[in-house]
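Weekly puzzle thread! Below is a chain. First person to post its structure in token form gets bragging rights.
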Amino acid sequence: MKNITVIGCGTMGNGIAHTFAQYGFTVILVDINPDALNKALITIEKNLDRQVTKGTITEIEKQRTLAHISTDTNLANAVSQADLVIEAAIENSDIKLQLFRQLSEYCNEQTILASNTSSISITKIAAAVKNPQRVIGMHFMNPVPVMKLVEVIRGYATSNEVTQAVMQLTRQLQKEPVVVNDYPGFVANRILMPMINEAVYTLYEGVAGVAEIDTVMKLGMAHPMGPLQLADFIGLDVCLAILNVLHQGFGNPKYAPCPLLVNMVTAGQLGIKSGAGFYQYKAGSKELVVADKFA
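Winning reply:
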């Protein structure tokens, strides 16, 4: 596999495109919004500049990586020659299903179709495709160029051949693939999201403040960042969407999202992406400041 198409140019999409291009793959990054594509290319170049500054890549490697990436707003054109398509659109079941119906029409029958979904059923997605055995999950971690894990999710119909091909491809990116079966939240988010939700409940019930909760988990459990800061980093809307998938999928009240999390998302307090969540964020500042609401 040499030709990769990535659908969606947000944080995950541009990170996936960056990573494949850095390892010599030809990448087409697709989005319906040309301005978003331009912004994604700027982000990729900035992230490559950081790698050059840290000495992990050379300037020549940076330029070579950028040369491997092109953009397109036409989905049919962008996937026509793809060996692998990775969908990295918003975590919305209806949108993903519609995209995969289109991919089923536009791609040749040998093209592997992967979703970067963090919680939505691969089996459900594959049901929208003519050849469901070629559909698989590739759940990259954020930031993609840095994090080594890729959850490889087998849907009910995913073939052994497709699974092995994706495992081999993932190792070519110097990442560690872990195969998991298709149940709500897979492994990473089935474990992580209840922890984040419990941290929100701990704040909601007045047990401790934002900084105190995160400090306990950082210093006591050796986590690189506390669960509330991590929730801001992931996006509170994404956390809520995953918890809803877990709650609906298992029917267990232990996965019910905390009312505080629901209210924050409703109010548009989504974390870093909105400038405020449990902490408040200012451009150019690395200082971690608890949001006024919780100070």
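Puzzle host: Confirmed. Bonus trivia for everyone else. The domain at 3-181 is CATH 3.40.50.720 (Rossmann fold).
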